């Protein structure tokens, strides 16, 4: 009854304003109904209010239209978008950095280790302890141990992915690491088909590792993993279906995923290009202690 009353009032108000529905448009365009743009891939991201992003108890999918860039204390001429942070229950941060021309990084807080992966542009990595300086391009990475007085700067701009966490190993001796993903060996993955590269040494001196995993279209994880480790993932190329808990998400390059401990996880690559993702995984820690 109330609805009918409301409709009546709205209709009355329109008429009072001299507005008829037919006055709102002179001509109508119905061509989208049979549009061939569907064959080229409709840009769903442009639909009002539509996003594939979701935040659940044990996982999150953060798609590019949901990124929010802001300035961060300490950083100069750079904007960061924190995709994962301890606010979600994670023990690490994962964020994108848009470094503009003449930009520089802020120093990580005391006790925090930092891993930098370059997505585009060029960035200069420095370690003041040994006056080392290294120019990193897309596909290159650098790991800075906690409290290592490190710096990042860019003359012409760069796009970065950064992982950070408080170093958790009491007796570990993490050393600086840097290099290029392409130069890392492909490691054996018994029972699986993907190509695996690890960007940090698999030693007890590091409390996390960064995996780069490639799947050709049609390839999938064999193990439907459930484990205590946490993950932060960025799909660098390709598209497929990511299973998280009881949800199955169509994903594509640029999508980020947070996986809490014990969430059911599985990926199947689809589309026409090789899928590549970069993945944070905590290691070495005794789950009883952390
Ligand atoms: C790069 O890694 C080497 C060890 O492989 C280290 O000696 C050097 O200081 C690192 N450089 C930077 C800028 O992190």
From TrEMBL:
InterPro entries: RmlC-like_jellyroll, RmlC_Cupin_sf, UGHY, UGlyAH_cupin_C. GO terms for molecular function: ureidoglycine aminohydrolase activity. Keywords: Signal. The keyword Nucleus does not apply. SUPFAM superfamilies: RmlC-like cupins. Residues 1-18 form the signal peptide. PANTHER family: (S)-UREIDOGLYCINE AMINOHYDROLASE. This is (S)-ureidoglycine aminohydrolase. It comes from Symbiochloris irregularis.
